[in-house]
Amino acid sequence: MEFELTRQNFPALIVLDEVDSTNDELLRRFGAGGLADFSVVTTMNQTAGHGRLDRGWITPVGKGLATSVFIRFESIVDNSRLRHQVGWVSLLAGFAMVRAINPFLKSVDLRAFLKWPNDVLVDGKKICGVLGRVLDDNSGLIVGAGLNLTSEKSDLPFSTSTSLAQLGVTGNSIELADEVLLRYLLELRDGISRLAGSNSDDVASLKNEIGETCATLGERVRVQNPDGTEDLARAQALDDSGGLVVRLDSGLKSKVISAGDIVHLRYE
Ligand code: BTN
Q1: Measured in Å, how far apart are the chain's first and last C-alpha atoms?
Q2: 140 - beta bridge partners?
Q3: Residue 251: its pLDDT value, please?
Q4: How far apart are alpha carbons 62 and 47 in whole angstroms?
Q5: How far, in Å, CA of 55 to CA of 234, rounded?
Q6: Confidence band for 118, pLDDT divided at 50, 70 and 90
Q7: Any idea where the domains of the chain sit in the sequence?
Q8: Distances (CA, A) of 124 to 23, 100, 112, 115, 121
Q9: Measured between alpha carbons, how far is residue 28 from residues 23, 24, 25, 48, 65 in Å?
Q10: Atom of ligand 1 nearest to the CA of 22
Q11: What does the pLDDT average to over 216-237?
Q12: What was the pLDDT predicted at 75?
């Protein structure tokens, strides 16, 4: 498992034959000291992956890609603006994956979209999940993405999950992984530098592009709040922090969702 294409552009790429969680691995390496900005750990055999909201994430051996990237807020490049844009960084990771897989989906006449906050959907089904975590010392964040590449129906955890192969994309798992990873990292690095940059027009245009990719906007949604309550609403917009602005059915009030989850009602 060489990831030669990716390595040509990201020579410090760490490829592991097996790991419990790429997010945990980066965290351990951070704890051991000396993690450079944009350090990347990847594997096609993650044995105990974490999902959002304390869920797990399954990567069937050799059929999925699990990748985590460390983004330092202060480095040679001044990324300190990102500290106030964490919500956007995690949206950006989903957006980068959308752009990374769209060239493959084109051959089967499909397109990927973002579901707030950072799932990637194709045809209403989830193909990729993203989990971001700000480090306790607030020096940066780890953002992990899990992508289903060649998982068969029996490998997928839910009827609402899919993989590139299930959607008709052909190709060898390892080659697909390498090509997608390279595109993902290039998109992510480009987005990070735009988001951290001082050009406010560029930041605004990136946020616009992310909004245009976000299939949640305009949808009827069920909001699952962190306290266990639920609201029915229509998703309207992304706010300045990357939160989701919804208009509740129960009144004319708008509300910003920054934690919890949402379900697109049309796919229920
Ligand atoms: C979700 O949809 O709930 C988020 C899933 C995130 C999974 C990725 S796989 C790489 C990284 N390492 C982990 O343990 N989790 C993330």
Answers
A1: 38
A2: 72
A3: 80
A4: 11
A5: 26
A6: confident
A7: 4-213, 220-267
A8: 27, 18, 9, 9, 6
A9: 9, 6, 5, 15, 20
A10: 12
A11: 94
A12: 59
Per-residue pLDDT band at 131 (split at 50, 70, 90): very high
Q: How many residues does the chain have?
A: 268
8 Å CB contact between 69 and 188: yes
pLDDT in tens, 47-65: 999 998 888 998 899 999 9
Reply yes or no on whether the pLDDT at 38 is more than 70: yes
Rounded to two decimals, the pTM is 0.94
- Whether residue 133 has its Cβ less than 6 Å from ligand 1: no
Report the separation in Å between the CA atom of 97 and the middle of ligand 1, taken as the mean of its atom positions. 13
Residue 15: strand, helix, or coil: strand
Strands across the sheet containing 14-16: 14-16, 39-43, 64-72, 140-148, 125-134, 119-122, 112-115
Predicted local confidence at residue 219, as pLDDT: 95
CA–CA distance, 97 with 91 (Å, rounded to integer) = 10
Q: Which strand (E) or helix (H) includes residue 176?
A: helix 173-196
How far does the centroid of ligand 1 lie from the alpha carbon of residue 74, in Å?
25
The DSSP letter of residue 214 is: B
- Ligand 1 mean position, distance from CA 200 (Å): 31
Strand segments, DSSP code E, in the chain are: 14-16, 39-43, 49-50, 56-57, 64-72, 112-115, 119-122, 125-134, 140-148, 220-224, 230-238, 244-248, 254-257, 261-264
Q: Any idea which architecture 220-267 has in CATH? A: Roll (2.30)
Strands 64-72 and 125-134: unpaired
Using the predicted structure, report yes or no on whether residue 1 has a pLDDT greater than 60.
Answer: no
Specify the CATH architecture of the domain 4-213: 2-Layer Sandwich (3.30)
